[in-house]
Amino acid sequence: MNDIRKIAFIGAGNMTQSIVGGMCKSGYPADHIFVSNPSPEKLEKMKSSLGVNTSQDNIEVIKQADVIVLSVKPQLMEQVCADIKSKVDNLADKLIITIAAGIRMPKYRTYLGDDITIIRVMPNTPSLVGQGMSGLVTDSADDKDKAYVTEVFDGVGDTLWVADEDQLDILGAVAGSGPAYFFEFMDSLAKGAMELGFDPEKARAMVQQTCLGAAQMAKESDLTLEDLRKQVTSKGGSTAKGVEVYQQRDLHTISADAVKAAVKRNQEMADLF
């Protein structure tokens, strides 16, 4: 990584641990990473395993950093930002990244000032195993800042810049919520196998490896997802009969309705903060 900045993470939850772990694995110098958290247990774990700087004082780490990553629960964000604004007088000189769901960029300006540079990032839970899909959006960062944040989050998976926060809501409904949809589907397949005599362990092993293999094929292939499905579906064969059931139950409409419901909830959440 060419652009090395001092970066402070406010909050040491699972996502922070994942992102910082990915950064260190990618060669980011641990002495340029600062993490704050109210309780010491998570900090001690990160300090001992990764060698990063830690503190229970948000302001202490922010004052040493060029970049601030806000990684606290949305319901705590206003209080955390109020404390930061009252004690840090050069916020306009720092790049601010937020990974909190639901809070839009104009709201951060009411919290931290009109002159801040901010990037919203929406990572998903597979980031915890280095296979994340992070959506990013900004209304103020320049290309250099965007390249920096892209490289940071590429350490835990793939990144995708979107045009505006409405698109980020859609990405959240697909990539953010998507792991839950896939787990639901995987669970249903495993239970189908169990109903026919498989024990739970073998059913799970069969389903999770099949899911992983299909995803890898999709990632490496230039074919459309529909064409990949057709490749597996011999006319008149057993797969065709299984696919017919999904088509008869209109899986497309079910998935589209699920995404729309999640988008609607994302928009409702934005009004709560």
TrEMBL record:
<dbReference type="GO" id="GO:0055129">
    <property type="term" value="P:L-proline biosynthetic process"/>
</dbReference>
<dbReference type="InterPro" id="IPR036291">
    <property type="entry name" value="NAD(P)-bd_dom_sf"/>
</dbReference>
<dbReference type="InterPro" id="IPR029036">
    <property type="entry name" value="P5CR_dimer"/>
</dbReference>
<dbReference type="InterPro" id="IPR000304">
    <property type="entry name" value="Pyrroline-COOH_reductase"/>
</dbReference>
<dbReference type="GO" id="GO:0005737">
    <property type="term" value="C:cytoplasm"/>
</dbReference>
<feature type="domain" description="Pyrroline-5-carboxylate reductase catalytic N-terminal">
    <location>
        <begin position="6"/>
        <end position="102"/>
    </location>
</feature>
<dbReference type="Pfam" id="PF03807">
    <property type="entry name" value="F420_oxidored"/>
</dbReference>
<feature type="domain" description="Pyrroline-5-carboxylate reductase dimerisation">
    <location>
        <begin position="165"/>
        <end position="269"/>
    </location>
</feature>
<protein>
    <recommendedName>
        <fullName>Pyrroline-5-carboxylate reductase</fullName>
        <ecNumber>1.5.1.2</ecNumber>
    </recommendedName>
</protein>
<keyword id="KW-0560">Oxidoreductase</keyword>
<dbReference type="GO" id="GO:0004735">
    <property type="term" value="F:pyrroline-5-carboxylate reductase activity"/>
</dbReference>
<comment type="pathway">
    <text>Amino-acid biosynthesis; L-proline biosynthesis; L-proline from L-glutamate 5-semialdehyde: step 1/1.</text>
</comment>
<keyword id="KW-0963">Cytoplasm</keyword>
<keyword id="KW-0521">NADP</keyword>
<dbReference type="Pfam" id="PF14748">
    <property type="entry name" value="P5CR_dimer"/>
</dbReference>
<feature type="binding site">
    <location>
        <position position="58"/>
    </location>
    <ligand>
        <name>NADPH</name>
    </ligand>
</feature>
<comment type="function">
    <text>Catalyzes the reduction of 1-pyrroline-5-carboxylate (PCA) to L-proline.</text>
</comment>
<keyword id="KW-0028">Amino-acid biosynthesis</keyword>
<keyword id="KW-0641">Proline biosynthesis</keyword>
<dbReference type="InterPro" id="IPR028939">
    <property type="entry name" value="P5C_Rdtase_cat_N"/>
</dbReference>
<comment type="similarity">
    <text>Belongs to the pyrroline-5-carboxylate reductase family.</text>
</comment>
<feature type="binding site">
    <location>
        <begin position="10"/>
        <end position="15"/>
    </location>
    <ligand>
        <name>NADP(+)</name>
    </ligand>
</feature>
<dbReference type="InterPro" id="IPR008927">
    <property type="entry name" value="6-PGluconate_DH-like_C_sf"/>
</dbReference>
